[in-house]
Batch of 2 targets.
Target 1
Amino acid sequence: MIKKYSLLILYTSLFLQVYAQEVSWRVLMNDPTISYYEVVAAFENQTKGKDLSKIKGSGKFQLYKNHYDKKVNGKGYYSERQARNEKMKFKNSSLAKSNSNDNWQYIGLDAPLLNMTGMWLGRVDRVAFHPTNSNILWAGTPAGGLWKSDDTGLSWNLISDTWPNLAIGDIIVDPSNVNNMYVATGDSDSWFFDSYGIQVSRDGGQTWHLKNNGLQDVTQIYRLVIDPSRPHILYCATEIGLFRSQNSGENWSKMTGIDGRINDLELHPSNPNILHVAVTKNRGWSIQGDKNQTKSRNFDFEYYRSTDTGSSFAPINIGFESTSDESDDMLFGRIAVSPDNPNIVYIGGYANNGESLGALYKSEDAGLTFVEKAPRSTFTGTIGAWTMHLAVNPTDADGVIMGSVTAKRSKDGGIS
């Protein structure tokens, strides 16, 4: 028996070595079974003698290298959860000291965002508004924490200074009880900062308590959604599926009938039994790497609809699935449902994370059928799939905004 296990370990090790040698470094960066050192070796071997400035994705590799270089263990692996546990041990130890009385003064840039000549400002991609007081809003960033403003954004106070990490994935406020707030931790756009659960407040954000019962295996949270008519019910869209809480975020359970990366979720505005779900399925790769890759299907994005609060889900084609042309595929699609007319549902997305064209689809029967609207040349995106956003005017179903780094607005339901 011991001999069999030894052979299995040997074969697994040899396979991983061959895999790391043959597969593109772009693929290896996203494979948690491959060590940091093997990724670096693959990059160096595959780009040897080439101009790195002309290699697509080399900048992303440098970010990867800078992030992990001093953090991996001797075998080249890094655990965000292990690092977080060590931070918490230090925080609770006698060595930790409060910095509340330290005399620090901000000396950074104060120029308004739109007046900046540079492009290297941090992302602020989550904003939540107080349901009854328009002066109060919260902003979340992928690496800068949770902030609150009491004066419509003129000044801000940092809330999450003592949290294990400063990555924020989403923010929601209970519309029926503003004391209840839920904040998804972790960067929803990348793997740099894992989620460690949901921070919950029962006093309007004065104090926070971590809730992750049922979410221990989750590393990315893309959306949090609350049922407005039954605010004790919440949905959590993650990289390993859709989760639901039926006791105001205290406990979570994974929903069946739908798998994959749930990168967006919307409820029907007047009938929360209806769920609109955006799912990204992982592509399959052959061991030969990029040039000989094989996909499990010719598209990554799938749209699902439920009419029974998620007890069952029905897949619905939106149009691009019938072709074998990869240029009309969609990756990490987004959904927008009109509060003004809940029968109007928009789905938008880009073909990939590089320079790609985007597509906008519209349904007028609450997500049962879709028609492609503006031509794909309307939307051009740099890292389009990652920075993709879609929104519909809450008082006008024909007003829609879609884009990536740059956004475009339509006032006629996506026709122009």
Note: The two ends are 68 Å apart (CA to CA).
Target 2
Amino acid sequence: MSAPEPPPPSSPGSSPASSLGSSPGPSSPPPPAAALRGHTTRIQRMTLLGALVVAGAAGLHLFASVLLPFVAAAGIAYFLHPPAARLTRLGVPRGLAALVMVAGLLAVALLGALLLYPLLLAQIAILISRVPAYASGIRDAATDLVSWLQDRLGAEFVDAKLRDLVAGQAGTMLSVMTAAVTRVIGTSFAVFNVLTLLVVTPVVAFYLLRDWPELLARLDGWLPRRYAGVIRSQAHEVDRILSAWLRGQAMCCVILALYYALGLSLAGLDLALIVGVTAGMISFIPFVGSILGCVTSIGLAMAQFHSWGEVLGVAAVFLVGQGLENYVIYPRFLGDRVELHAVWVLFALFAGGAAFGFVGVLLAVPVAAAIGVVCRYWLRRYLRSPLYLETSGPPALPPLPSPPGLPPDGGDAP
């Protein structure tokens, strides 16, 4: 019987544990290379995220003047994707469904423009021709109001100089407002180039709508595998909130535009159509549409009518409209599905407009929805973390044993 072969000699610098093939214990620190690799990956993730944010902001700033048709086309494609998907499920090819959706939307827009354009043009002409009469009417109404206050409060509170000043400034304010409206209309036509909006936007919207599923699949394939599930769930939440807000606000704006135009027409206001449609269409900006429409309508009513009864009737139209908007229309079409506070939306619209112009206004609500979803996600994680749930400090360490010859309290031995 032969003796067992001795184990092979260990290499210099190797420990006995490594020569026996045993792995280090669980308390051993990780190898420096693995720690360096994990640290490098974390730095790469943060660098990539920061680079994407900086590149997006720089691109918006550099190309804001030419991005309008593409951003509008992306919004149209997003809005029309659900009905196009339903047609696709019914057996219609995706390209044909996209063509039908874009052509239908374009036909509705052109029909509305053909019906409303002559009326709006006529009312704009009425406004321009009646500016002197409106200025005189507002001046007379302001003078009568100051005289009434002077009779009620006395001459020591309201004197003749103040009355003349108010009367003069009332006409000046209307002239300034008219000039501002004229400049806004001219600038809007310069920005919304007819050729761009009527040719480029529908074409880009068609291609985006046709290739929407492929674009989403390709973006999904680019997601980092480690965080793909979290990113998908947050993207679905953003889509849910954004789609509910857009479709609900579209219905609210249309209903309010019809109501204000009809109500102001029944009240006898000459420019009821243009004021009512404008107030309804900009009501997606919280508080701005109703306040601007009410102030404009009351000013025009004071210039047009010669009694306070008609002016109060015009004001009542907006008071009833606010009640319908807050208690009937918004709860019905928006309700609790939209987790976008009105103040947050207002800030996002103004911040987007100040930073990137009209393109920033178009992108404000989607960005606000995404930021809100991400903040709620991290808030949920924080509320489940030990940083929030921990109610006391770490447990106290047990006392160290006393050395021989010393009492337990550490005093001098007797």
Note: The longest helix spans residues 228-266.
